[in-house]
């Protein structure tokens, strides 16, 4: 049995090398890369005023899925009416299918519009299920004015409030119960509409009405089992991963990953971040991972790199953090060959550099926070992926961000061939406006990048390892 296993491993390795060398040869025949950006989303497309916050994955079937915020009425973050949409490509990004609407909350504009903001996706390679997480907020609520709490009671029922502040719970079949456990004559449908009999009296997701959900942030998930063609209804993650003292909670954004090391094999992880509710001062943010060891049935939250972090002689805790410079926010993660996780974090340090930390237990705890000296960062989201093993002993990571200390410009991609210890190769993708972005590896072994560029357009470009390392 052991002999057969060794033969199988060598065969898989040979086929992987064969595919890679074939892909590399084709790329050289095609002049090494395709630098022509393709616009995937732009203002006015599908009737949306603006698109922001890209997420991009390449599935086992070879499909590219690009997820985005459709900011219907204006460009800003929530409070705003923001939907979750995707486009799919089955030809490595040359063309893209129609917009698919996945999540649509009611209300319009910045005052009353409810939101599904900031996507992050991953594919469970063992089950084929594609997961997306994002932050939902009701009308009038965003990062800075989210109230503390999970929005659910100890039994997992959604909390609702009337105009006098009385508490209700939303239960099975949309039935509404008062605080004494008595069923009311109000019913809530799947769209959040509140009815008494046949009369619609409001919607729980808006900014005002006779019955509303908690004025906080909700981490939600949806999934697809057919390569992104259809998607589930939203699943609430707050009861499992949010603490009552947390105010905001949100996704990466970008992508999650699935671990392959023997100890945590099959674990799916998503970076998130959240804000606290200190006794004095403004809420401060910290990041962490949420993870599932049963393919998304249940979720847990790991500790933040800010939990136990040493800062100027003091020990920090994400629950009580009050120091702006110590905030860790939007983040992305890769798994190294030795099983460690390497975490890349947006932060508010005056260093204006991307922060990083290592985990040796699958993202449950973290070592000390440090900074990449060469990674200039204007306090913006970044993207990082691990390139597939091609059998040459090199551990490749690819990173991209707006490489500038004060402006979101100069989009730069970097290559490490030693697991992130050094980054000797870099190339500028776009010298102009460049904000959020997301990397993936295509079936051709090219690298795909979806990024926010000039004229508020979301562009897709693909390139090769050779291009990153080339002189031209």
From TrEMBL:
<dbReference type="GO" id="GO:0005737">
    <property type="term" value="C:cytoplasm"/>
</dbReference>
<protein>
    <recommendedName>
        <fullName>exo-alpha-sialidase</fullName>
        <ecNumber>3.2.1.18</ecNumber>
    </recommendedName>
</protein>
<dbReference type="GO" id="GO:0004308">
    <property type="term" value="F:exo-alpha-sialidase activity"/>
</dbReference>
<dbReference type="GO" id="GO:0016020">
    <property type="term" value="C:membrane"/>
</dbReference>
<feature type="domain" description="Sialidase">
    <location>
        <begin position="216"/>
        <end position="442"/>
    </location>
</feature>
<dbReference type="InterPro" id="IPR036278">
    <property type="entry name" value="Sialidase_sf"/>
</dbReference>
<dbReference type="GO" id="GO:0006689">
    <property type="term" value="P:ganglioside catabolic process"/>
</dbReference>
<dbReference type="InterPro" id="IPR011040">
    <property type="entry name" value="Sialidase"/>
</dbReference>
<dbReference type="Pfam" id="PF13088">
    <property type="entry name" value="BNR_2"/>
</dbReference>
<dbReference type="InterPro" id="IPR026856">
    <property type="entry name" value="Sialidase_fam"/>
</dbReference>
<comment type="similarity">
    <text>Belongs to the glycosyl hydrolase 33 family.</text>
</comment>
<dbReference type="GO" id="GO:0009313">
    <property type="term" value="P:oligosaccharide catabolic process"/>
</dbReference>
<dbReference type="InterPro" id="IPR023364">
    <property type="entry name" value="Trans_sialidase_dom3"/>
</dbReference>
């Amino acid at each position: 049995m052991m002999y057969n296993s060794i033969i199988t491993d060598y065969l898989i390795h040979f086929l992987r090398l064969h595919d890679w060398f074939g892909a590399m040869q084709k790329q050289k025949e095609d002049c090494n890369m395709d630098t022509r950006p393709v616009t995937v989303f732009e203002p006015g497309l599908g009737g949306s005023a603006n698109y922001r916050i890209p997420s991009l994955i390449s599935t086992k079937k070879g499909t590219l899925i690009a997820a985005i915020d459709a900011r219907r009425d204006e460009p800003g973050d929530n409070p705003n009416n923001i939907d979750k949409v995707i486009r799919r490509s089955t030809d490595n990004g040359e063309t893209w299918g129609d917009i698919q609407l996945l999540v649509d909350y009611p209300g319009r504009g910045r005052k009353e519009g409810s939101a599904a903001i900031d996507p992050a996706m991953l594919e469970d390679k063992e089950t084929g299920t594609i997961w997306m997480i994002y932050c939902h907020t009701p009308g009038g609520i965003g990062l800075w004015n989210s109230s503390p709490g999970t929005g659910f009671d100890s039994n997992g029922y959604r909390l609702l409030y009337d105009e006098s502040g009385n508490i209700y719970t939303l239960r099975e079949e949309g039935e509404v119960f008062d605080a004494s456990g008595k069923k009311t004559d109000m019913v809530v449908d799947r769209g959040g509409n509140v009815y008494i009999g046949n009369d619609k009296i409001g919607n729980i997701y808006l900014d005002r009405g006779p019955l509303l959900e908690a004025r906080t942030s909700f981490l939600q998930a949806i999934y697809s089992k057919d390569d992104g063609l259809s998607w589930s209804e939203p699943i609430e993650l707050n009861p499992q991963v949010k603490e009552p003292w947390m105010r905001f909670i949100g996704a990466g954004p970008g992508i999650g990953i699935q671990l392959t090391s023997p100890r945590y094999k099959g674990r799916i992880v998503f970076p998130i971040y959240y804000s606290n509710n200190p006794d004095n001062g403004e809420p401060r943010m910290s990041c962490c991972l949420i993870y599932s060891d049963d393919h998304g049935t249940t979720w847990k939250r790991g500790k933040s790199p800010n939990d136990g972090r040493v800062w100027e002689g003091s020990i920090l805790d994400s629950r009580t953090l009050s120091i702006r410079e110590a905030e860790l926010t939007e983040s992305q993660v890769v798994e190294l060959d030795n099983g460690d996780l390497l975490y890349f974090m947006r932060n508010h340090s005056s260093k204006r550099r991307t922060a990083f930390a290592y985990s040796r237990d699958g993202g449950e705890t973290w070592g000390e926070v440090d900074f990449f000296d060469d990674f200039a960062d204007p306090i913006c989201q970044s993207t990082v992926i691990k390139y597939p093993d091609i059998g040459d002993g090199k551990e490749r990571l690819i990173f991209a961000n707006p490489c500038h200390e004060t402006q979101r410009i100069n989009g730069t991609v970097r290559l490490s061939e030693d697991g992130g210890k050094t980054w000797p190769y870099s190339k500028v993708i776009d010298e102009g406006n460049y904000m959020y972005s997301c990397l993936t590896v295509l079936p051709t072994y090219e690298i795909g990048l979806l990024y926010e560029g000039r004229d508020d357009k979301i562009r897709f470009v693909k390139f090769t390892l050779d291009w990153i390392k080339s002189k031209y």
